[in-house]
Amino acid sequence: xxxxxxxxxxxxxxxxxxxxxxxxxxxxxxxQNLCEEKANYTVKVEKLKRKxxxxxTILDSKYVAIExxxxxKEILGDYTKGRSTYEGEEYESIEAREIVKGTxxxxxxxxxxxxxxxxxxxxxxxxxMNKSFISKIVVxxxxxxxxxxxxxxxxxxxxxxxxxxxxxxxxxxGKVTKxxxxxxxxxxxxxxxxxxxxxxxxxxxxxxxxxxxxxESDIESYFVWIPRYNYKLFNTTNFTYTASTExxxxxxxxxxxxxxxxETNDKNKNECTTPGESGNIGNxxxxxxxxxxxxxxxxxxxxxxxxxxxxxxxxxxxxxxAQHNINNSKQVIIKPNxxxxxxxxxxxAYQTSFGYKRELESHMMKNTEWGAxxxxxxxxxxxxxxxxxxxxxxxxxGYAAVNKPTCGYTATNETCNKYxxxxxxxxxxxxxxxxxxxxxxxxxxxxxxxxxxxGIYDMSGGSVEYMMAVMVDENGKPSSGRNSLYNSGFNxxxxxxxxxxxxxxxxxxxEVKDGIDFPRESKYYDTYKYSxxxxxxxxxxxxxxxxxxxxxxxxxxxxxxxxxAQTRHISxxxxxxxxxxxxxxxxxxxxxxxxxxxxxxxFSLDRAYGNLxxxxxxxxxxxx
Length: 624
Prior knowledge:
- There is one protein chain.
- This protein has a domain of 140 residues.
- The protein is 5% helix and 25% strand.
- It is built from 4 helices and 31 strands.
- A 7-stranded antiparallel sheet has the order 10-9-11-12-16-31-19. Strands 22, 25, 28, 29 and 30 form a 5-stranded mixed sheet that branches.
- The longest helix has 11 residues.
């Protein structure tokens, strides 16, 4: 393998913005495997010093930005340290950072482009002034037994495989094969997120060889890995709302993320502490880096395995047979082209999720966890565009609209927002409709968070998904729901006990006492402050993909059939609906439904009672 080029130097350099750094002439090199067999390789940036000279004038790697193959900027000092190997006539290596690891086929080649610059966050201090940085690109290769694959940009947050999780790769037709974990089976830089499946029919990973197709009938559940990451704050204050359709809104932007287990709690390093409660931004400012709160609830986790689809009801053969308000983990199925499990109270959705795979820390998805997926989708590692709606009115998972909707909610199924019921067949035999496409149609990837088969589906449309996220009552305790008729099934205060619902009148009960208790551990749910304001857009948690999408305004859609106009509260992020919780509607829902049109999406949010509904479902997450 080729393993040596001229040194890369930063002499008389000064801090550059990311935009300036990305315009630098890249250092380009090619790795070639001259052997017939595949081989491992590691690309290292080795920091050099002159032989016999002191090291006091060398710039620390934590101040050096690096970009690999036009990807997102990283900090060189965050990469794993490797073994220093370079020694020349004039220079010797004092530090090695492993920036790329991979496998290359026999006689294969791979090209890399690398840019280095002093990061824009660097300030003029004794640590940074009058320093130099000289480095060498070194490539190590070997034909020994291949090591477990990992991706250096993940900085140690590579997917964790335990118990029943079987690593898989998915081709451009949706076909699933068992992955060889010693070869590249995911690549976040190329938007191929790690996927794993849990098998059914008493099948285990041993029933399949590496590279062998896994039958769809043998798969019980699909999961997608969300690596632990920090993100750069971009909107910590502009949570305002105006009732005007002419109000100001923000445009979608790329959200900067950097993977790793490093905590962000040192303001001197341009970082901030995650706020401990909703509406409190603590000492966080735009431009600071913050550990995403979804990962802080499970402090030892390297990431989250997120259900690739809404949770389905195993064995359901129609839309109605997937409606059950029960706690039964044995009925869980998470795969494409199955009927979404609906008409379930939050308490039963929580118990079902919690009991699904206890050894894998299974639990019902929280709002901050939804936010973690949404922000990764909106980064350079995701599709960073509007996620296409699932407009299958039969609530089959994994479907995608043929065309992007152009109007908001309409119950009249107008041309601008066509949805239809397609419920013939399941699995590989699922049907396409005129306006909706099943998962195994390759065009369905418009509904994926990555724009390919490696992402997460049903985060726009399909069923409206309950989050395990609730408003507290006036005493700071989690609320159960609205009143005795409409609640979650959890024990707790009812926030609007005397509110009548049409002809149904509640009995005035102020508290649910015959339900189940909230989880003893708060890591399994998010709480939001008590509020009586219908438009309190400050009532969010940084990272949960709600308040930070502001400012917010109204949008009005008038159906062409003369029905009453619909007023929507939207953000500028793809014109999706965001309606914050209020004391009478204390539970959060995400994604919205099939008929919400342009208002549905990964950044949409609505409020609810927590009761069962035939349009609401839930999602399961594993924390490892």
